[in-house]
Amino acid sequence: MPETDIAVIGAGAAGRGLASLAVALGLRVTLFERGPMGGEAPDPELIQAALRAAGARAALARSAARMGIGSGDVPVDWLALRTHLAAADADAAPDSTAARFEAMGVELVRATGRFSAPDAVAAAGQEWRFRRALVATGAAPVIPSLEGLETVPYLTEETIHALEERPDHLLILGGGGFGLEMAQAFARLGTRATVIEATRIAPGADPVLAEGLARALRRDGVVLMEGREPARAERREGGVSLLLADGTRVEGSHLLLALGRAPRLAGLDLVTAGLPGPGLVVDESLRVEGSRRIWAAGGVIGHAGASDLGALARSMLFRVPGMPATPAPLRAIRTEPALVELGAPDQVEAAETLRWPLADTTRASAEGIEEGLVTLSVDRRGRLVGAGLLAPGGLEMAGMLSLALGRPVAELAAASLPQPTLSAAIARAALEHRAPSLTNPGIRWLAGIAKRLP
């Protein structure tokens, strides 16, 4: 039976990152992947990013007229757009190809890996004994138990790249991040887009931020049907029909399922590995509870793959004692404006919430930005414990807030920022924490004394 230092099951972002680092450190690494790797099939996340970028360009062109630049409709050449999507995917593919990993010294097994013992993985008729193993099999789109769905062609985030023509009317089941991102992108590219959500869009997000995002999406032409559940799907000539629980019928040319993702665990044989199952529970170091040898990362535990690499390096590769610092919870919906939330303010007692609209910044006025808000959650000691953004470029602005979590919110108020900038709204919101002190009699008395000084 061959032996390996690190067995990695799954070649997603987490698996590739860990394999690259481990082999660079001189460890023997065996990577098991049954599906396509870079260059063998389109990368869904990259395709989605390119679609969002194309939609953003179209929206900018349409809105330029209010600044006296151009006018009229913006035609979309779908064939040219598909060519761009393919080129973008090809540019990124070399970083994740099978040939690259084999050249690095990774033993690549193109087959399904499963546990055959608490310290062994079986694949392609062989077994490998490992010292440590990483489960990084990712997650798959959730397919609902909806009557009639088996008779209807549908798209998911893994197949949306296959559209040969622009949809006339895209029906989207699910108002979470992926569904809203695609609704906006396709609406900007000239497709009618309807989102059907059983609760409200961006469930779990700050309701104020979610409502602001809803207004922005409607301006782009997205139809939002909140609080509506589908009861049956039917195929019709040229498209699909959805019958909702309240009797409403919605018809479209294409159906996109955007109901979240579920961990890919089928076939791993967790029981043989000595794990309780049915899912994977990890501690702060990402080690799977019930095993001293097995870790899990990425989509299989609901994380973004790349963000787990630091914790894996510390606990799995270097075996540093103690728990690594747990990254702050992060939620991002990559629309425009983006909705980003950091930290866990709901877990802090008596937190103060500070808000400031983006419209009240010089840059927003100059660029005609209509929607946006900053929210800061502060604990009793004046420390930042959570933040929310609804802002164009919010994904980049979030870095400033991420570094400030756990620190006095006053530091944000004093931040040195280039002007004009939308981040000024962060500083202005932070200043609101100091506002009550301006009415303090003692502070006013000191100001009165200070004004007499030369």
From TrEMBL:
Entry keyword set: FAD, Flavoprotein, Pyruvate
FAD/NAD(P)-binding domain ranges (all copies): 5-301
Source taxon at top rank: Bacteria
Pfam families tied to this protein: Pyr_redox_2
SUPFAM superfamilies per UniProt: FAD/NAD(P)-binding domain, FAD/NAD-linked reductases, dimerisation (C-terminal) domain
Matching Gene3D superfamilies: 3.30.390.30, FAD/NAD(P)-binding domain (3.50.50.60)
GO molecular function, one term: NAD(P)H dehydrogenase (quinone) activity
Regions crossing the membrane: none
Protein's name in the database: Pyruvate/2-oxoglutarate dehydrogenase complex, dihydrolipoamide dehydrogenase (E3) component
Protein species of origin: Muricoccus roseus
Taxonomic lineage of the native organism: Bacteria, Pseudomonadati, Pseudomonadota, Alphaproteobacteria, Acetobacterales
